[in-house]
Each structure stands twice: as structure tokens, then as C-alpha cells.
Amino acid sequence: MEPSHEGPGDHQTAGNGDGAASSSMWEIEEVGDEAAVAGPPRHPTSISAKAAGVGSDDDDVYVAIGKSASSMDALSWALKNVAKPTSFVYLVHVFPVVHHIPTPLGMMPKSQLSREQVESYMNQERAKRREMLQKFLNLCHTSKAQVDIFLIESDQIVNAIIELIPVLRIQMLVVGTAKSNLKRWRRGNTKAEQIHKNAPHYCELKIICEGKEVDATDGTPPPSPPSNTMINKNKESNKSPLSSPSHDNNTDAKNKDKEQKNRSKDSIFLRCCSGKSSK
């Protein structure tokens, strides 16, 4: 993979226009084996603002983002739970390689179109990508987080992210996933699970579902919030009528047993959702 800036010029920044710190946007393109052997990339691997000595590598947080709502949940969780004031937050977005371009005659191979047609379409795609990324940037700016973006052009999302980990020596990676994906976790066909299985041991992976961390070993989903109906029923059941002292003592004993059982369940749940890998 070869890093380059997105858009014309040597340095491209993105911001929210309200005076917040600007953020660099880097695009990493796939290159063939021959180009990879020919020499190092045009920019060093430390191609972000951290090269200027801002923040600490140990505090850096990388968040894989896409078009799904789970990506926004992952970023929101990272900003609240793992990002520190000294942290740099790096947004990693993988987008597909353009092989065909839509035309009035249908999808045409890029190689059969003029340079102007290709460039026009690529500019449209960049504009869409920037519009999508701006939502994530706005959230980072609202949280006063220092942020950079890595854009990776690749048809293989999982492999692109895994290959980026040793290049940037990523120690903290946050990935979002939909709750529906957790139901087929053990089949090994979800992106989050594939990243978990293939990521280097030094990379701590946090998998977030609906704003909560889940166990990366078995994909334990977060519990659904109780409905208002269930809450009202529980309140009604807890209301005991006036009774004799002996009845109250029996009720207190039962409540204590129930509380102990609930505490046991809570501790089991917390262990399951600790996110610590068994590696």
C-alpha cells in the first residue's frame, strides 16, 4: 500500500469551519508487488500529525469507519471510553477500487473511457466520501479530539485493515459491528471477527455493538434495554402489601437472595463483556 494525499496539492485538510483544529486526510492506494519492491512509499509511515510530536503513540486510537450506523457508534464509544486528551484519533476508511464507471450505455470498464470521464466520476466519488467523513469529523471536533483520516483504496476491507496494523504499529483499534452480525459470529464470516482472528497480538481490538463493548472471543451481544412495560411490571411486583413482621422478614430474606443472584449475574456479564482477548 502506498500513502498519498487525497485531492490536488501536497496537503489536504478537512475541518468543520468553526475554528476547530484541522485534520489531515491521507489516501493509501494499493500497489503491485513490483512497485512495492522498487522502493519505500513517497511518505514515511508516520504520515500524520503525530510525526510533529503531538500526542503519544501509546495513546493513539484508531477507529475503522464506514457508511453503517455501527461505525458512528464505534467512534462515539472510543471518544468516551478510550481516547485521552493527549490521544490522536485516526479514522480508517476503506473504499473499493473503481474498475467500472456508470455511463448512459451502462457500466463501462474504466480503461475504455476518456481521462476526463474518469476524472469527473472520481471527483464525484471523492465528494461523496468527504460528505460521509465530515459527519465523523464533526463528532471528533465536538469532543475536542485531535483527528486524522486514513483512506485506503482496496477491494478487501479486512485485509487492508490487517495490513495497516503493522505499518502504523496500531496498538488500539476500535471496530463497530451490527447486532445481526453477532448471531453468526462463530461462522467466521463477519469483518470484525476476521480482524480479531488475524490482528497481531500487540493490537488491542475493541468491538462495539450498539454503543457497548462485546466479547471478541464469542461475540456476546449487549443486552436489549428493558421496555417501559417490563419496568412498570417490576415496580408493581416489588410493592408488597402491609403485613405482619414475620411476613416482612420473609420478604426481606427473599429480596436479599434475589439481590445476591443479580450480583452474580452482573459479575458474569461484566467478565463476558470485558473485551479481554484470551490470547
TrEMBL record:
Q: Per its UniProt entry, which superkingdom is the organism in? A: Eukaryota
Q: Which residues form the UspA domain?
A: 61-191
Residue spans of biased composition, Polar residues class: 239-248
The record, for InterPro entries, names:
Rossmann-like_a/b/a_fold, UspA
* Annotated Basic and acidic residues bias: 249-268
Q: Where is this region: Disordered?
A: 1-54, 214-279
Entries under Pfam families matching the protein: Usp
Question: Per its record, how is this protein called by name?
Answer: U-box domain-containing protein 54
In its UniProt entry, the species of origin is given as Ananas comosus
Q: Tell me the gene name.
A: LOC109706801
